[in-house]
Amino acid sequence: MGTTQLESVPEPKYWHLKTVLGEALDSEFTVGEILPNERDLAARFGVARATLRQALEQLELEGRLQRRRGVGTTVAPPRMGVEVGPAQNAWPGETDDWQPADCVQTAPPAAVAKLLGCGTQEPVHAVRRSRVSGGQPVAAELLYVPAASVPELSAIETPGGPARARAVLRELGRLGLEGEDRAVELGSARADDAKQLDRLPGAPVLLVTTRYFAQGRTAAVSVATYRADTCRLTFGDSGDVQIDHGQERRAS
Predict the structure, then answer these.
(1) How far apart (Å, rounded) are the C-alpha atoms in residues 73 and 40?
(2) Which domains does the chain have, with CATH numbers?
(3) pLDDT confidence of 153, banded at 50, 70, 90?
């Protein structure tokens, strides 16, 4: 890794250093390799350690580096492609990608209630699921299902837990899916999602909100939280990307 003097660079030093380090990661390091310590790196690039830390933190946010306690800073593997937009519409639960963890009845967040067309005090089924890829947790999801979408669900047979979640998904799948729409935005991990994804609360995440339509209405709403540092979302042949310039934030 060569020495680069940054005093004459007009942009913030840490940002330019991040670019230089990124190029070095591509050309001089392999996945899993441990970087030199901060003192050596700062001396090599002629910057203060505070500047170096800013650059390293940015690379970590972008998924280029991983900081492992007791090991040091290592080169992260490339982001994995995660399919979120199949060419054919499918109900949640019709693939093995997601594993149901729990199901409770709760009042939906205001943004979700608006998408469902129900009141914020009207209880809905909230199915919590997780998605694992390559042995690593990549996403956590809350699927909100109104009681009207699963009228045959029996509370006696499956009172709670994963069995209740699977029952909700099974009953939801009995409806004829008419279509879906999907929105993606950058967000911050909430405490419960962060724990499930092995991240710190507030870490950058990708929020994917999906509305499922059946019988001329919104039958369910999914809010999936993906790790922004390890995931590269792919949309298959689902169509063009639509840009929403509205000020209203998506459900979370």
Answers:
(1) 13
(2) 13-75 (1.10.10.10), 80-234 (3.40.1410.10)
(3) confident
Q: Which two tokens stand for residue 148?
A: 């009207």
- Token pair recorded at residue 180: 């879906």
Phi, psi of 172 (to 5 degrees): -60, -35
Query: What secondary structure does DSSP assign to 165-191, as a single string?
Result: HHHHHHHHTTS---EEEEEEEEEE--H
**pTM metric for this prediction:** 0.70
Quote the Cα angle for 221-222-225, to 5°. Answer: 150
pLDDT in tens, 166-216: 999 989 988 988 988 888 888 888 888 888 888 778 778 888 899 999 999
Residue pair 214/180 in contact by the 8 Å Cβ criterion: no
Instruction: Give the E-state strand segments of 134-236 in sequence order.
Output: 136-146, 179-188, 204-214, 217-227, 231-234
